[in-house]
Specification:
Elements (H helix, E strand, L loop, with lengths): L1 H7 L10 H7 L15 H15 L10 E4 L7 H6 L2 H4 L6 E4 L4 E6 L8 E3 L22 E6 L6 E6 L7 H4 L5 E5 L8 H8 L3 E5 L8 H11 L1
Parallel strand pairs: 6-7, 6-8
Antiparallel strand pairs: 1-2, 3-4, 3-5, 5-7
Length: 224
């Protein structure tokens, strides 16, 4: 109901994505962590399929991806908040699905995109106890991922941490994927889109994001 209310307030030119139906249909799968507030890669895959139907590409099946599990147990945010022994005794694991394309990733602290540092779209090992860092190495202000595709398609993803697990799936369909976290990047989004010839903009959020003033203020400042 909350999602429908928010979608109903959007301009008619904005195309909405119904990720909820796919998630609800697969509710028995490991879509969300027990000890953390994020969705798993399987949960993000449900949203990837829904977005493909709107964006006009054919999503790959999960069986099409090379998969694995990041070594080590994962105790996430819900455990850190509660220190619950029940959560500690039922740790999560982080499953990944490797993109079918090769990619180079660089993270930046500003839209000037100078002095970047290399990142991986998916890391199969994570030394930190936060195994969710397997996906685009966590929250960076700005990331540019370039694949070996030559279709000229470019997309910018505006996200908080829920978007991290989704981005690797998008690499299979775009030559360039830009990832922006409005909480930590100051940018003129229309100018950035025009400068880099980006054709699509995807906003990825979860329900609590509507109460995150830092994200909302950053996003509003970007769009002007």
């Amino acid at each position: 109901n909350a999602i429908a209310s928010i979608y109903g307030r959007l301009d008619s030119s904005i195309r909405t994505v119904d990720a909820y139906t796919n998630l609800a249909a697969q509710w028995q799968d490991y879509l969300y962590f027990r000890t953390d507030h994020h969705w798993t890669a399987r949960g993000a895959y449900c949203a990837y399929k829904a977005f493909g139907a709107v964006a006009g590409f054919a999503p790959y099946a999960l069986d099409d991806f090379e998969t694995g599990i990041v070594p080590g147990d994962f105790l996430g945010s819900l455990y850190r908040y509660t220190k619950s022994s029940k959560l500690k005794n039922n740790p999560d694991f982080v499953e990944y699905f490797l993109p079918r394309v090769s990619s180079d990733g660089i993270a930046f602290t500003s839209t000037a995109m100078t002095e970047g540092y290399r990142i991986q779209a998916v890391r199969t090992t994570v030394s930190s106890t936060n195994k969710y860092l397997a996906f685009i190495q966590g929250d960076n202000p700005l990331v540019r991922l370039t694949t070996d595709l030559t279709n000229g398609k470019k997309i910018v993803v505006l996200k908080e941490s829920f978007g991290n697990a989704l981005v690797p799936f998008l690499l299979n369909h775009y030559q360039e994927v830009y990832v922006i976290d409005p909480r930590s990047l100051k940018a003129d989004l229309p100018a950035f889109i025009e400068q880099h010839g980006i054709q699509e903009v995807l906003v990825v959020n979860y329900a609590f994001a509507v109460t995150n003033t830092k994200w909302l203020d950053g996003f509003e400042a970007m769009i002007g």
